[in-house]
Design brief:
Layout lengths: L7 H13 L6 H16 L9 H18 L3 H14 L5 H8 L1 H19 L6 H9 L4 H16 L6 H21 L3 H15 L1 H13 L1 H21 L6 E5 L2 H11 L10 E5 L1
Antiparallel strand pairs: 1-2
Helix pairs in contact: 1-3, 2-4, 3-4, 3-8, 4-6, 5-6, 6-8, 8-9, 9-10, 10-11
Amino acid sequence: MSESITYTNIQKKYRALLKSCKNLVSAEDVRLVRKAFDTAMNGGGDAKPVTEEELIRLMDIGMIITSEIGLGRTSIICLVLRRVVESGTLKIERVKAVFGDKVAQILSGLHDISRIYATHRVVDSDNFRKLLLSFAEDVRVQLIFLAEKLYDLRHADNLRPEQQRELARETSFIYIPFAHRLGLYNIKSEMEDRALRYSEPEVYREISMKLEGSREAREKYINEFIAPIVEEFNNRGIKFKVKWRTKTIASILNKMRKKQVEFEEIYDIFAVRFI
């Protein structure tokens, strides 16, 4: 990375990102990722170098791309180069020459999506939704865009209330169906909860408080529920782990509304797995 950036937190995030990128198998792979970051940080032309805050944002989105979605080197390079390409500072022809045809193709796709995103009121734009859901040239275009939106949701507390509501509507209309279509169910569930938090804050807060208030009783019930199963597995010498989680607030609310019942009448608010 550029010698002018020496912040310890950035260095740690950079090393963690490289480590999470499973297909960095050669010195050439690492060189290309490093070159992408240097290109973004140096700016050039009308593009300003990325700030420390922007660099941290890129690395955090990069961790979503690698650790939560499972993409690798090519997607990280595209994420990092996106701004300098869209500003016109870095030409696609140069991208092809330095980083290869696939990186250039994905960046062109991201540019197309960004252009439509910037010129339409996205929540009411069926054209944008259809584009995002059917962009078939390379699915990594969609996944990089989705990672950026998940990052935005995770940091939406910094937005004004009207911006939070707009992002929540946009998420419900476009990104949640998109994540579902791609089988990214953990991301879909998180997006549902975060969108609900901003679209219906009072409902979200009420269910959250009830979950917190019933935590002790719920944990006791789960322990009693799994005890005979655990005992039987141990008697048979079966190695296993027990994982359980409370269902998301959005999932609980959906069930309440579907069955037209109150929170206290929903009994399957947790899931248990033996692995």
